[in-house]
Amino acid sequence: MLDLDIAQIKSRFLMAALQVVNDPRVMKVLSYPKVMHAVTRGLAIKDKIDATVRIWTEDDSDYHR
After folding, report:
1. Looking at beta carbons, which pairs linking 55-63 to residues 24 or more positions away fall under 8 Å?
2. pLDDT > 60? residue 64
3. What DSSP character marks residue 65?
4. 3-state SS of 34-54?
5. Tell me: the pLDDT tens digits for 2-43?
6. Could you give the dihedral angle defined by the CA atoms of residues 36, 5, 7 and 51, in that order, rounded to the nearest 10 degrees?
7. Whole-angstrom Cα distance, residue 49 to residue 55?
8. CB of 53 within 8 A of CB of 6?
9. What does the alpha-carbon distance between residue 42 and residue 4 come to, in Å, rounded to a whole number?
10. CA distance 57 to 29
């Protein structure tokens, strides 16, 4: 159940983010080097969080077996 909730939240967040990023005004701002660097760092942090959540959910499923 936890996996489904996380997947739904992630899907909704990604859809909202795509709508925002597809705006031409936002694309112009994202093209600035400092902004792009901040976005890249944010994505790296997101990857680390995703990996941590995967570890937690795998450990949790192993515990309940």
Report:
1. 57/2, 57/3, 57/6, 60/2
2. no
3. -
4. HHHHHHHHHHHHHHHHHHHHH
5. 566 777 888 888 899 888 888 888 888 888 999 989 989 998
6. 70
7. 10
8. yes
9. 24
10. 36
**Model pTM score:** 0.48
Q: Show the CA angle centred on residue 42, arms to residues 37 and 46, nearest 5°.
A: 150
Nearest to 19 by CA among 39, 11, 33: 11
Which tokens go with 51?
């990996």
Q: Which amino acid is at 47?
A: D
What DSSP element (H or E) covers 4?
helix 2-21
Q: Give the total residue count for the chain.
A: 65
